[in-house]
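--- STAGE predict ---
source: upstream dedup step, 1 unique chain passed
mode: sequence only
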Amino acid sequence: MKKMLAIFVVTAFVLSLVGSVVSARTLEEERDAVRAYLKVVDAKIIKARKAGQKAKMVQLQKEKQGTLARWDKLKASMEAAPTPPAPPPAPFAPVPPSAPRAVSAAPAAALFGLGINTAWTGSYVSTGKGSLSGSIGLSSDLILDDFVGLGPIVGLSANAVKYTVGLGGFYGGGGLRAIPVRAGGVITLPADMMGGLETYLSGGVNYVVYGSGTTTDKVGNVGGDVSFGANFDLGLGLGKTGVALGYSIIRSQTVSSKGLSLSVTQGLML
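--- STAGE serialize ---
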């Protein structure tokens, strides 16, 4: 019991001695001590930020704020003395470098400076007819923005839906010779649907304005197409190229070409 009492007395004496030593510091000495400590904390914060240790960085920032709060309280109490020294300048944390701004890729330069967005498509429709066992075609379309606002209505982005209007020519497939006009659209699907691959759905209707068996009162019939494709960068310097599989129908007055189709589309800004 006496031993415990002696330990308690010694502990109380040591604590009182430490308290008297700390309280004997001047305001300038306290300021220097706080500055030195904050320099160490700032260095740790910068190191944690560079290492991506967000939790540690937040903990250090809280510790720094607590130190500043205790310093303000101590400074106020010491300034209340009869001969207060000049208040030290408040220490500041180093300003972190600003985050780099995301720079969007510059759009492809217009070939003729017209600013007209177009798509050029080469197609093959497998029919089993003629020397080509099908029909080949080439078409050009104007690409129009989603003026209806259909994309957000169906839960897609504002740029996910585009409309197309164009003209093309097809040859083969049992004597087919046709020039159809076409109107349709393209829906860009969310990238996460195919593991990051940029995919799309396209479709439209066509009408042959000149073709096999043309007469003055009837030039053709209504056809259509639907396909699923993906965009790839082929390193041509022209942007991404679309490759799609689908089903197409082109009907002149006397010859029809319909079957599975393969198409390659290249966008060009005129």
